[in-house]
Amino acid sequence: MDKQECKTTLNIERLETSWNAQFVSRFHTVASLHPKQTVGSHSYGVAILVNELWADASKELLQKALYHDVPEIFLGDIPFTAKRNHPEIGNAFELAELAIVKRYEIKWLYANLSMKDEARLKMADMLDLVLYTHLEGQTNKEMADICKYGAHHLYDTYSTHPDFEPVRKVLGYKHLLYSLMSDANK
């Protein structure tokens, strides 16, 4: 029997950095009695959502879903609200992320995805936030508010996107879509 040759070049620094990133805490600015979600559990959740929502998901999309927050091992999880309310923080964060991606050769993050796959990644990323904060929001008002914001953001940004239908079904199943509609009627 012929021996098969490994066709990948092992980059130990990238492997260690990417593997260690799973332990970075998310939502560190929200007071909670429960253990926080980590980048590892979030990335797993995003990859599962991509795989389950879109049967034709590309390998590149799944890889980017798994690695998309690896730079947070060095930068932490900058809250979305900080980036939104202070664009200079968001811009600096993007530049810092890019430097880390290049330094550690995290090629899955600088691979260009199609516009369709980029939208799918963003939807799955936000849907994971919504699902996690929905669970936590049952005992934590701040998490409930984040959940509501995330669900609104998903709906307002992607409801007309052709790949939104499976996301709409998940939101409906969790009764989040109905709460969005009741908010619109207030």
What does this structure look like?
- This protein has 186 residues and is mainly α.
- The chain has helices at 12-20, 39-53, 59-67, 72-75, 80-85, 87-103, 107-110, 115-136, 141-158, 165-173, 176-184.
- Helix 2 (39-53) packs antiparallel against helix 3 and helix 2 packs across helix 8 (115-136).
Integer average pLDDT: 88
Tell me the number of helical segments per DSSP (H or I, 4 or more residues long).
Answer: 11
The coarse silhouette is: globular
Q: How would a textbook summarize the main sheet?
A: none
Radius of gyration: 18 Å
Overall number of strands: 0
- Provide the low-confidence segments as ranges: none
> How far is it from the N-terminal to the C-terminal residue, by CA?
71 Å
Structural class: mainly alpha
Q: Output the helix-strand order.
A: HHHHHHHHHHH
- State the share of residues found in helices, binned by percent: 55-70%
Oligomer: single chain
**Percentage of residues in strands:** under 5%
Summarize the structure.
Helix content is 66%, strand content 0%. It is mainly alpha-helical and 186 residues long.
Keywords, separated by commas or semicolons:
186 residues, mainly alpha, 11 helices, 66% helix
